[in-house]
Amino acid sequence: MKRLFSLLLAAAMIGGTAVTAKAADDVPDTYSSAYVVMDAKTGQVLLQKNMYEKKYPASITKILTAALGLTYAKPEDSITVSEESVSDIWKWGETTHLALEPGEVITLRDALYGAMVESANDCANAIAQAVSGSLTDFAALMNQQAAALGLSDSHFTNAHGLPDREHYTTAYDMARITRWALTVPGFEEYFCATEYTIPKTNKKDVARNIGTHHHMLVESAYYYPYAKGGKLGWTSEAQHTAVTWAEKDGLSLLCVVMDCSDKWGKYKDTAALFDYCFDRYSMVSVSTEEIADYDIPVGSITKTSGMVHIVPAGDLDILVPKGTEVESIALKYKIPSRYKVGERIDPQVEIYCGGELVGTFPMEYTVESYAPVEEVPKEENAGIGAVLLTVLKWVGIVLGALLLLLFGLRAYFMARRRRARRRRTKNRR
């Protein structure tokens, strides 16, 4: 490993932000027109097909809805279901729901289980209502969160995912949304749940038992032993969509499939893609203690008022093809040369394996100290002006002397010619 670290420390700074690992020729054929397999811990992309193509997500939208619900409300909060939350879903005809009624009181926990396990659209609206008060305001919040995550290819118009031309995302964006969602306290509970009982309410005198439709999570022909959680979606416009989380041999992977033409194909695709990555990748940890820190100056070109200290954000865990030679792994840094007070910078470390970029990871930075910086201090302005005046004065003196010399020489030679003419005239007489 010492040899590895010496190589890492010697790597040069370069540009580029791609994160996709190079795939072998034996990648599985899929029913899905777009997919991505991503390391859930780091965001490293292992395998993808059309991952930046905009697609309708259908009910995998509810991953974002549930995560926002847990971010801005508490599971024990009570929700009085509104008329808007119920009537909205009938715009699309018969859809999946729990038959919530206006005025019915449920908890946010009930709504979260209903949305994630049963995929109930009225429960998704209840979450939106609890967080933002209106469905429109919640859609705005969804887009705010997408923007905060740096997602430029997603736009959301509702909490449930029923079809709308302006409601779209990509396989890559959905994987990033799910990565963020898994960091939200409590989200994993609902993402991994396979059954739940919604107790009696003021409008329903019997409990409602619900169970997941994700066949990879429960005993079925498509059960996948390493699957931990997931969410499905379907509309005629979106076709079949699925987000699945699986862990094996210390690897934690997310698989997103979109625009799948076959009802069971989403499971076949997901299992095949997981197997491909689990069989071919292993984890390598790089200790940040062996990686050089960077210091860049704070201020303008003319004046420095502090330093910014940049370090890798924790130890780096990267996935590399099994059998990869240690000597083929290298780190290269993307770091600005200077920090301007108040600006945002995104220093990064890039991971290369055998010359191929396999991941890009953030670096942390702290501003040690700074003071207001003037681009050109007044004192420097005065000095520059004084020097310029001195130069001009001496140029004037030199030019003046040259002119006087020229005039003097002209007068001397003219006088000599006049004296010569007078002598010639006198001799003729």
Average the pLDDT over all residues and give the rounded result.
84
Structural class: alpha+beta
**CATH homology group of the largest domain:** DD-peptidase/beta-lactamase superfamily
Q: What is the CATH top level name of the largest domain? A: Alpha Beta
> First CA to last CA: what distance?
114 Å
Give unreliable regions as ranges.
1-23, 373-382
Strand content: 15-25%
Number of strands: 16
Count of separate DSSP helical elements: 10
Helical percentage: 25-40%
Radius of gyration using CA atoms only: 35 Å
> What is the domain total for the residues?
3
| 3D shape | elongated
CATH topology of the largest domain: Beta-lactamase
The string of secondary-structure elements, in order, is: HEEHEHEHHHHHEEEEEHEEEEEEEH
In CATH terms, what is the architecture of the largest domain? Answer: 3-Layer(aba) Sandwich
Strand order of the largest sheet: 2-1-9-8-7
**Largest pleated sheet:** 5 strands, antiparallel
At a glance:
With 429 residues, the protein is α+β, with helices and mostly antiparallel strands.
Structure explained in plain terms:
The structure is a single chain. The protein is α+β, with helices and mostly antiparallel strands and 429 residues long. The chain has 3 domains: 1-21 and 287-375, no CATH class; 31-280, Beta-lactamase (3-Layer(aba) Sandwich); 381-429. Helix content is 34%, strand content 25%. The chain has a 5-stranded antiparallel beta sheet, sandwiched between helices. α2 packs antiparallel against α4 and α5 crosses α6. It is elongated. The relative contact order is 0.14. The model is unreliable at 1-23 and 373-382 (pLDDT under 50).
